[in-house]
Model the fold of this input.
Amino acid sequence: MDRQSILGFILIFVMLMVWMWYNAPPPTQPQAQGQAKIQDTVKAPSQPIQPAKQEKQTDPFSKFFAARVQGKERIITVETDLYTAQISAKGAAITRWELKQHKTWDGHPLQLVDYEKNGDLSLLFTTGDGRLINTHDLYFDVDVSFDYVKVENFEFKIKFTLPSAGGGRIIRHFTFRNGEYGFETGVTLQNLSNVIANFEYQLIWESGIRYAEHNSVDESGFAAAYAYAGKELTEIDAPNVGERVQRDISGAVEWVATRNKYFALAIMPQSPASDGAFLEGNRKAMPDQGALETYGVAIKMPFKGASEENSTFKVYLGPLDHSQLKAYDNGLEGIMSLGWEWLIRPIAEYVFLPVLSGLHYVIPNWGLVIIMFSVLIKIALHPLSKSSMKSMKRMQALQPMMEEIKAKHKDDPQKMNQGVMNLYKEYGVNPAGGCLPILLQMPILYALYAVFRAHIDLRQANFVWWITDLSIPDTIVSLPFQIPLFGMNDISGIALLMGITMFVQQKMTVKDPRQKMMVWLMPVMLTLVFNSLPSGLNLYYAVFNILSIAQQMLINKQHDNEPLRKVEPKKRRGGIFGKFPDELRKLRK
Done:
C-alpha cells in the first residue's frame, strides 16, 4: 500500500467520523449524558401548547363551561388486533394506547400515551370572555352505555359531547377500525359564535410520546417534532437541557408529528384545510445521566362563527414503519431518519428497505436476512472492489521500482515526483485506483448505516446466542471502567469480530514494513467507533469483511505471479483527425 492509498484510507476514516458525529445524539450538559434505564414509568414533563402570541392565562372556570369542571369519570376501552386504547370522558382524551406487537426494552407492555397526565388530544381555544379553555380539564357526555368493545370486522364510532352555557355544544367523534394503527376523529361546533373568539381553535397533543428503549440519550437523539406544509418539512429539536424551542407556522399545514426512536404520533387534518401549526419541545435531564425530550404539536383550525362547523382529522399512533407511513401518501415517511435527502435517503428508501423486506418475506430470521443481504451487496459491489484490489496489487508490484526512483532523486523532489508519475504512466497504473472504488462505496455504506439504525423490524429481533436485539449493541463483556474519549464500558462481540476481520484484511494488503502501524490503527479505531452501533449493522460489516477476505485471497492467487507489463502507447488515429496534431505542430514551427 503506497502513500496515496494510506491517505485514501485516512480520508475514509475522517469521513466516517464526521458522519458519526453528524448523526450522533445532540450534545448535552454533563448531567444529561450517558445511559439511563427509562422504563414504562418515566414521567414526561407536560406543558400546554399555547396559541401563537397568546398571553392569556388558562381558566377552566369560564362562564361558558363552569358547569363542566366537575363530572362523572368514564373510561371506554377499545381493542383491536394492533392496540388497546382507552378514551376518557374527562377531556374526551386518549389516556392509553398500548401496542400489542411491540414491547419496551425490558419486556413490559409498550404504552405510547403519557396516561399519568390524564391523556392527550384535546381542544384549545379562547372564549369571548377572555379565557383560554383546554377541554382536557372538562367532562364530556358519552353516547354509549358500555365500557369495552373489541373491534373486529366492523368500525366502531363513539361520540363525546360538551355542552356550553347558552345552548352551544362541542362534539368529539372517534372512529376505530381493525388492522390500522390510526383512527379518525372529528370536531363539531354547534352554536358557539359567541363562545369561541379569534376565529380559531386548535387540536393539540401536549405531552409527546413515551420512551421505550434502554438508552434514553440515544432515543433523545431521534426525538423531534415536525410540520409539513407546501411540500416542505419543518423540524424542531431541543438539544439543550432547560431550553424550550418553539415554532409557529402559518398557512395550510398537511400534518404535524412527533416521534421518538421507533414510534410516532401524527395528526393530519382532512377538511377543512388548517390555518397553521404550532410546535414546541424541551429537553430534561433524567437520573443516571439520562435525558428525556418531550414535544407538543398543535393544528390550528379556522372557525367562522356558523351555527354548525365540522372538521375531520386522521391520527396515526404507532411504529415508524416505512410502508405504514408511506400509505398515507402525504410525505409522512419524511419523519424517518434515513440520511441526507439529496444522496443517502434515496438509496436507503428505494433500494435497501425493499430488498430487506423482500428477503425477510422468504427468510424469517433477521440475522440470516442481514447475512444474505451482505452477500447480495458484495456481489453488486464486486466489480468495484475487484478493481480496487487489483490496482493495489499492481501498486505493490511497482513498489521496488518506486523506491529506486525515490533513492535516485532524493535530493530533487520535483524529479522524484516526475519519475514516479512516468512509472505509473508506463505501466498503466492509476495511483487513485485503489481508493476511488472505496470512496464510491461510501454513500452505500452511509445508507446502510441509516437503515440499520432506523429499521423498526430489527428492534428486539433475535439472531443467535447472546444477540437478542439487532437494533442495539450486543454486549459480551462489561468493563469496570469507561474508555476515555469513546465513553464506552461495554464490549460488543460483533464489533470485535468486525475489527478482527478488518485486521486480517489489512494484514493481507499492507506489505511495506514502514506501514505496520496501519495494520493495527484502522481496525482498533473502527472497532471502538462501531462498538456502540447496532449489532445488526456490525453483523453486516463483519460478513462483508469476511467475503472481502475470500475475494482478496482469490485475487492474490490469480495475480501473485503475474508479471508487470508496460502499457503499449496508443496508436495515432488515421484520417484528418489523426493528422491534425502533426499539421498543428508544423504551423507552430
Observations:
- The mean pLDDT is 81.
